[in-house]
Specification:
This protein has one domain: Rossmann fold (3-Layer(aba) Sandwich). The chain is about 30% helix and about 15% strand. The strands form three sheets. It has an eleven-stranded mixed β-sheet with strand order 3-4-8-10-9-11-12-13-14-15-16, sandwiched between helices. A three-stranded mixed β-sheet has the order 1-2-5, with no helix packed on it. Strand 15 and strand 16 form a beta hairpin. The termini are far apart. Its EC number is 3.1.1.-. It comes from Massilia pinisoli. Keywords: Hydrolase, Signal.
């Protein structure tokens, strides 16, 4: 059994097993973007381009820097295979195993669209932000492929963002450097997300997409990222709609920069780098990537004493105190679809389910069009009740057959067709209704009606059956 630190190297050695085989040069559609021409591939009526750099590789001196512009290239760049997912320690029980080996050079974007698109056509754009607790995840898992959604008349974009200590890290010397360069600091993963959305705004028209009609969608840490983007001062004008899958209550931690700097200094000290070492930053950047990961992933991430990792935090520029921003109305007011799974993290009165309900109510009360849901359906092959965390993703992506393979039943696939149709409708017009689907009412706190993707495979709108219990639990918790 290889050591945890050896796993990324092992995946690199096995990379031919993970990477999709590129199409032969000259066989796919060529699109011109702001850094050069890229050639994709066509399969099953869908054109795709993968592994397009949206920023410079964040390696060497660019480790722990805001994403820098990608270098232009001459000729035609082949774009038929995913780029590397961002550096991390994968784990076998991941709900969406990676399709590529992880590496620091990972800032790549992928695009799917219907193959037959006129140059002047402006299709709705859906941009996917993966979850994984901000320490795992990537755009390459087959469940996240965009072909099935593209077939329904949208452009689907996915991308990678930095994770763990590569994505969220502070240190006094980093603060000095960032202040000197006039750059934001700490939340590099969020900066990557903003850079990817700016890439979409500049380039998606070349793929037939409408830069003025972008829907961002994320699950778990991706859903929390959507919440952060909704309140980020730097995200204005980058999207027109938002979908939050299991993203909690919209509140973000605000420990203060000094506290996060101390945590970064703790990590440096654990690597033998003193806080007052004038070359601390150079030494940190010289650490091998697997030493920065340091054996941490979603499966074994546990509190340490002293702490050596914190994750996203409110820095005041890229990420603010989202809870306060939502409460005060200082957020991007666009239509929002929001929900969680029935057996999500924390149970029916816990963080994900109650959090989604709370945020839906707060947004709706401020006049935002909100469509709330609960995903209660369980694939027939699982054979036990309760929809677990992240189990709704393949249904929204219509990749149920990819996720469950030969065990996917007609009922499973039908639920995927229905849920993906709601998502595509929402992306097109900010309202999931239409196309003969069961009516999904706009959410209002006094009516408390949500769409339940029910266990029997029949979606329907109903008053939240857990509403009173969630409210009672919330009131009791507030009184303690």
């Amino acid at each position: 059994m290889p050591s945890p630190r050896a796993l990324p190297l092992l995946m690199l050695a096995l990379s031919p097993m993970f990477a999709a085989a590129p199409a032969s040069a000259g066989s796919g559609p060529v699109v011109a973007i702001d850094t050069g021409k890229v050639q994709g591939a066509v399969a099953g009526g869908v054109a795709s381009w993968k592994g397009i750099p949206f920023a410079a590789p964040p390696v060497g001196a660019l480790r722990w820097r805001a994403p820098q512009p990608a270098a232009a290239w001459s000729g035609v760049r082949q774009a038929q295979a995913y780029g590397n997912d961002c550096m991390q320690l994968p784990f076998p029980s991941d709900a969406a195993p990676l399709g590529t080996p992880p590496a620091e050079d990972c800032l790549y974007v992928n695009v799917w669209r219907p193959a037959a698109v006129r140059a002047t056509q402006k299709l709705p754009v859906i941009v996917w932000i993966y979850g994984g607790g901000f320490v795992n995840g990537g755009s390459s898992p087959p469940t996240y492929a965009g072909a099935a959604l593209a077939k329904q008349g949208v452009v689907l974009v996915s991308f990678n963002y930095r994770l763990g200590r590569f994505g969220f890290f502070a240190h006094p010397q980093l603060t000095q450097q960032a202040n000197g360069a006039g750059e934001p600091l700490g939340n590099y993963g969020y900066m990557d997300q903003l850079a990817a959305l700016r890439w979409v705004k500049r380039n998606v028209a070349a793929f037939g997409g409408d830069a003025a009609n972008v829907t961002i969608i994320g699950e778990s840490a991706g859903g929390m990222s959507v919440n952060a983007l909704l309140t980020s001062p730097q995200a204005q004008g980058l999207f027109a709609k938002a979908v939050v899958l299991s993203g909690g209550d919209g509140k973000s931690p605000d420990p203060g920069l000094a506290a996060v700097e101390r945590i970064g200094a703790n990590f440096a000290a654990a690597k033998g780098i003193a806080a007052d070492d004038p070359h601390a930053l150079d030494k940190l950047r010289a650490l091998p990537a697997d030493e920065v990961v340091d054996g941490m992933n979603l499966a074994n991430r546990a509190p340490q004493d002293p702490a050596t990792y914190f994750g996203p935090f409110a820095d005041g520029k890229v990420a603010v105190d989202s809870g306060a921003a939502f409460a005060s109305g200082r957020f991007i007011k666009v239509p929002v679809m929001i929900g969680a799974t029935s057996a999500d993290i924390g149970g029916k009165t816990g963080f994900m389910v109650a959090g989604a309900r709370s945020l839906a109510g707060r947004l709706a009360a401020q006049g935002v069009p909100v469509y709330a849901y609960r995903f209660s359906y369980v694939a027939d092959s699982i054979g036990k009740p309760g929809a677990q965390h992240a189990s709704d993703i393949p249904y929204f992506f219509a990749t149920v057959d990819v996720k469950y393979g030969a065990e996917a039943t007609k009922k499973d696939v039908a639920m995927g067709r229905t849920m993906s149709a709601y998502l595509v409708n929402f992306a097109k017009k900010g309202d999931p209704n239409g196309g003969g689907l069961a009516a999904w009412p706009r959410y209002a706190g006094d009516k408390d009606v949500i769409m339940d993707f029910a266990a029997d495979g029949k979606p329907g709108a109903l008053r939240d059956p857990w509403g009173a219990e969630i409210d009672a639990t919330t009131v009791a918790a507030a009184g303690r």
